[in-house]
Amino acid sequence: MRIETIYELNKKNQLIVDIPDVFKDRKKLLVILDDSVHKTTKKLNLLIKASTDPLFLQDIAEITEDFNIVDSETL
Predict the structure, then answer these.
(1) pLDDT tens for each residue of 14-26
(2) What gap in Å lies between CA 22 and CA 20, rounded to an integer?
(3) CA dist 74 → 32, 38, 61, 65, 70 (Å)
(4) Number of Cβ atoms within 10 Å of the Cβ of 20
(5) Handedness of CA 7, 12, 13, 19 (dihedral sign)
(6) What phi-psi label fits residue 22: left (phi over 0), alpha (psi between -120 and 50 degrees) or beta?
């Protein structure tokens, strides 16, 4: 079983994790520290900005129009 949760570090730069009951009989667990949360947040913010960018919206409209032509063709 795998559970992924984002935790906040305390002021001492420590992480305290309460182990769920499904792991109570385990003697070892794999812990992976990954700071990609920041990268994901940055990417999401860029996507939000793109949703109102006129040039980006124009590109999407052109691509959609190109595919509409192809979609209407019979093979």
Answers:
(1) 988 889 999 989 9
(2) 5
(3) 50, 45, 22, 17, 8
(4) 10
(5) negative
(6) alpha
Q: Name the amino acid, one letter, at 22.
A: V
Identify the residue whose tokens are 């730069």.
Answer: 13
Q: Residue 5 corresponds to which tokens in the numbers above?
A: 């949760």
CA distance 14 to 35: 14
Give the DSSP letter of residue 10.
-
Contacts of 70 (CB under 8 A, 6+ apart): none
Q: Using CA atoms in the order 4, 29, 2, 31, what is the torsion angle rounded to 10 degrees? A: 30
Token pair for 33: 């520290």
pTM tops 0.70: no
Neighbouring residues of 29: CB distance < 8 A, sequence distance ≥ 6: 19, 23
- Quote the tokens at residue 30: 């794999």
Q: Which two tokens stand for residue 15?
A: 């992480």
